[in-house]
Amino acid sequence: MTQVTVTLDANLAIDAMMLSGTKSPQDAVELVLRDYLARGRRTETRTGDALDGRRLPQRPSTDHEG
């Protein structure tokens, strides 16, 4: 796997370490990112994506003005 070096503010790295319960800033950032991506995938699975709207039947609008 290719690795990327990212420069972060020390306070941000410390917050990530405290959130993830790790002693290494690199491990902390990796865990936070993995969790963030996993949450996004779970949300997509529950709610669907933009293309799912095409599969639903189109209902006429029931809103009436006046």
Structure overview:
By secondary structure, this protein is an all-alpha fold. It has a domain at 10-47. It has two helices and no strands. It has helices spanning 10-20, 25-47. The longest helix has 23 residues, at 25-47. It is elongated, with a radius of gyration of 21 Å. The protein starts with 9 loop residues before the first helix and ends in a 19-residue tail after the last helix.
Question: Largest sheet, if any?
Answer: none
Uncertain residue ranges: none
Distance between the termini: 62 Å
Compressed to H and E, one letter per element, the order equals HH
**Mean pLDDT, nearest integer?**
79
How helix-rich are the residues, as a percent range? Answer: 40-55%
Please, how many helices?
2
Question: What tags apply to this protein structure?
Answer:
single chain; mainly alpha; 2 helices; 52% helix; 0% strand
How do the helices and strands line up, and which of them pair or pack?
Elements: H1 10-20, H2 25-47
Helix pairs in contact: 1-2
Short overview:
With 66 residues, the chain is mainly α. Helix content is 52%, strand content 0%.
